Amino acid sequence: MLKWTIFVIGLIVLGYVVGWQSLEPRAEVDRAWVRLPAVPGRPAAGYLTIRANGSETLLAVASPSAERIEIHNSLTENGRTRMVRLNAVETIGSRPLVLSPGQTHLMLFGLNEDLRPGQEIALTFRFRDAPPATTRARLVAAGEAEPENVGY
Ligand SMILES: [Cu+2]
Prior knowledge:
Elements: H1 2-21, E1 27-35, E2 44-52, E3 57-62, E4 68-77, E5 80-86, E6 89-90, E7 97-99, E8 105-109, E9 120-127, E10 133-140
Parallel strand pairs: 1-10
Antiparallel strand pairs: 1-2, 2-7, 2-8, 3-6, 3-9, 4-5, 4-8, 9-10
Protein backbone atom coordinates (compact mmCIF):
# COMPACT_ATOMS: atom_id res chain seq x y z
CA MET A 1 0.00 0.00 0.00
CA LEU A 2 2.82 2.39 0.95
CA LYS A 3 4.62 1.56 -2.31
CA TRP A 4 1.50 2.42 -4.28
CA THR A 5 1.08 5.69 -2.40
CA ILE A 6 4.68 6.68 -3.13
CA PHE A 7 4.22 5.67 -6.78
CA VAL A 8 1.09 7.81 -7.15
CA ILE A 9 2.75 10.80 -5.42
CA GLY A 10 5.73 10.33 -7.76
CA LEU A 11 3.42 10.45 -10.79
CA ILE A 12 1.78 13.64 -9.52
CA VAL A 13 5.15 15.34 -8.96
CA LEU A 14 6.35 14.23 -12.41
CA GLY A 15 3.15 15.62 -13.92
CA TYR A 16 3.82 19.03 -12.36
CA VAL A 17 7.41 19.08 -13.57
CA VAL A 18 6.50 18.10 -17.14
CA GLY A 19 3.57 20.50 -17.08
CA TRP A 20 5.79 23.37 -15.96
CA GLN A 21 8.36 22.72 -18.67
CA SER A 22 5.77 22.65 -21.42
CA LEU A 23 4.20 25.94 -20.30
CA GLU A 24 3.81 28.49 -23.02
CA PRO A 25 6.66 31.03 -23.10
CA ARG A 26 5.79 34.07 -21.00
CA ALA A 27 7.59 37.34 -20.40
CA GLU A 28 6.69 40.39 -18.36
CA VAL A 29 8.32 43.75 -17.93
CA ASP A 30 8.24 45.81 -14.76
CA ARG A 31 10.16 48.53 -12.89
CA ALA A 32 10.25 50.58 -16.10
CA TRP A 33 11.37 54.20 -16.02
CA VAL A 34 12.66 56.71 -18.51
CA ARG A 35 15.12 59.53 -17.90
CA LEU A 36 14.18 62.56 -19.98
CA PRO A 37 16.94 64.30 -21.93
CA ALA A 38 18.62 67.42 -20.52
CA VAL A 39 18.08 69.09 -23.90
CA PRO A 40 14.64 68.66 -25.50
CA GLY A 41 14.82 66.79 -28.77
CA ARG A 42 17.72 64.59 -27.66
CA PRO A 43 17.02 60.89 -27.02
CA ALA A 44 15.78 59.68 -23.64
CA ALA A 45 17.05 56.54 -21.89
CA GLY A 46 14.85 53.73 -20.61
CA TYR A 47 15.46 51.13 -17.90
CA LEU A 48 13.43 48.13 -16.77
CA THR A 49 13.41 44.50 -15.68
CA ILE A 50 12.32 41.59 -17.91
CA ARG A 51 11.13 38.35 -16.32
CA ALA A 52 10.54 35.28 -18.47
CA ASN A 53 9.76 31.65 -17.64
CA GLY A 54 12.71 30.47 -19.74
CA SER A 55 15.36 31.84 -22.05
CA GLU A 56 13.78 34.61 -24.06
CA THR A 57 14.90 37.20 -26.58
CA LEU A 58 13.70 40.79 -26.65
CA LEU A 59 13.50 41.82 -30.30
CA ALA A 60 11.92 45.27 -30.33
CA VAL A 61 10.32 47.97 -28.21
CA ALA A 62 7.75 50.54 -29.29
CA SER A 63 5.77 53.38 -27.71
CA PRO A 64 3.01 55.68 -28.96
CA SER A 65 5.04 58.49 -27.31
CA ALA A 66 8.29 57.92 -29.26
CA GLU A 67 9.13 57.75 -32.96
CA ARG A 68 11.68 54.98 -32.54
CA ILE A 69 13.21 52.93 -29.72
CA GLU A 70 16.57 51.19 -29.94
CA ILE A 71 18.23 48.70 -27.60
CA HIS A 72 21.72 49.91 -26.67
CA ASN A 73 24.67 48.66 -24.73
CA SER A 74 27.26 50.94 -23.07
CA LEU A 75 30.87 49.91 -23.63
CA THR A 76 33.91 51.39 -21.94
CA GLU A 77 37.17 51.08 -23.91
CA ASN A 78 40.36 52.90 -22.95
CA GLY A 79 38.42 54.98 -20.46
CA ARG A 80 35.90 56.17 -23.04
CA THR A 81 32.30 55.12 -22.96
CA ARG A 82 30.32 54.68 -26.13
CA MET A 83 27.04 53.06 -27.03
CA VAL A 84 26.39 50.29 -29.52
CA ARG A 85 23.02 49.33 -30.90
CA LEU A 86 21.88 45.75 -30.28
CA ASN A 87 19.50 43.87 -32.57
CA ALA A 88 18.19 41.86 -29.63
CA VAL A 89 18.91 41.09 -25.99
CA GLU A 90 18.51 37.69 -24.34
CA THR A 91 17.58 36.57 -20.88
CA ILE A 92 19.68 33.76 -19.41
CA GLY A 93 17.25 31.03 -18.42
CA SER A 94 14.57 32.45 -16.17
CA ARG A 95 16.87 34.94 -14.44
CA PRO A 96 15.49 38.49 -14.53
CA LEU A 97 17.21 40.69 -17.09
CA VAL A 98 17.82 44.19 -15.74
CA LEU A 99 18.39 47.13 -18.06
CA SER A 100 20.09 49.79 -15.93
CA PRO A 101 22.13 53.00 -16.27
CA GLY A 102 25.62 52.45 -17.68
CA GLN A 103 24.68 49.04 -19.08
CA THR A 104 22.09 47.75 -21.51
CA HIS A 105 19.32 50.33 -21.91
CA LEU A 106 16.65 51.60 -24.24
CA MET A 107 17.17 54.74 -26.28
CA LEU A 108 13.97 56.59 -27.15
CA PHE A 109 14.19 58.89 -30.16
CA GLY A 110 11.62 61.50 -31.12
CA LEU A 111 9.97 61.47 -27.72
CA ASN A 112 6.86 63.66 -27.42
CA GLU A 113 8.30 66.95 -26.09
CA ASP A 114 5.20 67.79 -24.07
CA LEU A 115 5.98 64.99 -21.62
CA ARG A 116 7.05 66.00 -18.11
CA PRO A 117 8.71 64.24 -15.15
CA GLY A 118 6.21 62.29 -13.08
CA GLN A 119 4.12 61.32 -16.09
CA GLU A 120 4.11 57.83 -17.59
CA ILE A 121 4.36 56.45 -21.10
CA ALA A 122 3.40 53.03 -22.44
CA LEU A 123 6.12 50.71 -23.72
CA THR A 124 5.36 47.54 -25.69
CA PHE A 125 7.95 44.78 -25.91
CA ARG A 126 8.11 42.19 -28.68
CA PHE A 127 9.76 38.86 -27.89
CA ARG A 128 10.94 35.92 -29.97
CA ASP A 129 8.69 33.34 -28.29
CA ALA A 130 6.55 35.01 -25.64
CA PRO A 131 3.55 37.16 -26.56
CA PRO A 132 4.13 40.93 -26.53
CA ALA A 133 4.09 42.68 -23.14
CA THR A 134 3.08 46.26 -22.43
CA THR A 135 4.08 48.21 -19.35
CA ARG A 136 4.05 51.81 -18.17
CA ALA A 137 7.31 53.67 -17.61
CA ARG A 138 7.65 56.54 -15.12
CA LEU A 139 9.39 59.66 -16.48
CA VAL A 140 12.12 61.30 -14.41
CA ALA A 141 14.02 64.52 -15.13
CA ALA A 142 17.55 64.50 -16.53
CA GLY A 143 20.05 63.93 -13.73
CA GLU A 144 17.38 62.56 -11.39
CA ALA A 145 18.03 59.20 -9.74
CA GLU A 146 16.07 56.01 -10.35
CA PRO A 147 12.59 56.52 -8.89
CA GLU A 148 11.65 54.43 -5.89
CA ASN A 149 8.43 52.44 -5.83
CA VAL A 150 8.47 52.20 -9.58
CA GLY A 151 7.31 48.58 -9.53
CA TYR A 152 3.74 47.72 -10.40
CU1 LIG B 1 22.03 54.57 -25.73
